Amino acid sequence: MAGKAALHLVSAWATEQHLVLGQVAVADKSNEITAIPRLLSLLDVSGALVSIDAMGCQKEIAAKVREGGGDYVLSVKDNQPRLLEDIQLCFEKGLDTDFAGMEHSRHQECYDGHGRVGRHCVYTILNPEGIRDQALWQDLKAITVVFSERQEAGKEKAEEVRYYIGSRAAKAKTCANSIRSHWGIENGLHWVLDVCFDEDGCRMRKDHSPENMALLRRLALRLLNKHGGKGSIRGKRLQSGWNDDFLLEILSCK
Questions:
Q1: Closest to 49 (Cα-Cα) out of 166, 146, 143, 127
Q2: Domain map of the chain by residue range?
Q3: Is 218 helix (H, G, I), strand (E, B) or coil?
Q4: Using alpha carbons only, how large is the chain's radius of gyration in Å?
Q5: Is the pTM value of this prediction over 0.90?
Q6: Which residues contact 209 (CB under 8 A, 6 or more apart)?
Q7: Reduced to 3 states, what is the DSSP secondary structure of residue 109?
Q8: Which residues of 138-147 are buried (b: 16+ CB within 10 A; e: fewer)?
C-alpha cells in the first residue's frame, strides 16, 4: 500500500540445524532493541549460546537470555561507549604485559580460498577486571577481542578489530566458533531469501500479508534445504513448479 514501510523482521537462527526458530516483526516507530526481547520470550534458550550483534548489546537483553537459562555472546560497539572503552583498556593492558595475572586464552585461524587470504587472532579474558558497570551486565564472565586481516588479490590488506562480552566462561576457541557461526545467518538465510526468493523485491504491504509470506518463504527454504538431491535452491524451486511429483517429494521431506 502507498506510504507503508517495508517489513523488517528479527529472526532467531539455529546455526547447526540451519533452521529459523522464530521471527518477530519490528513495530512501527520502534527498532530491533524492543523486538529482540519479544522474540526471546517465544523461545526456549535453556542451555543455548545466544549470539546477537551490537544492536542487541543491551543490559536488559543480556538479563533476558540469562533468565531463560541461556548464555550470551554480544558484539560491543560505539552504542555502548563506556563498556567498549573498558574492554579496550583491558586488552591493551593484557597485550602489553603478556596477560600477566589474567586468566586468558588465545586462538588463531587462517583461511585461503576464493581469492582471499585471511587470519583471525582471538583473545579471551575470563573474569576481567576494570569493567566499571560489570555488575549491571548479568553474569558477565568473559570479554573477547578478534583481530582480523584479509588480503584479496589486487586490493590493500583489510584489518578489523571487534569486541564481545559473554556470560559463559569459555576459551577463545569456543568464542571464535560462536562468533563465526553468528554470521551463518547472512549466507544461510538472508542471502538465499534475497537471491533465490527475491524477498527484498516483494511489494506486499496489505495487513499481515508481508509477515505471513515471509514465514512461508522460511518454511519453503527449510524443506528445500532438507531435500538431499542435487541442484541449487533456485533450481529446486523451479522444478517444484514444473513437476508435481517433485513438489510432493519436497513437501514430504522430514
A1: 166
A2: 72-177, 189-251
A3: helix
A4: 21
A5: no
A6: none
A7: strand
A8: bebbbbbbbb
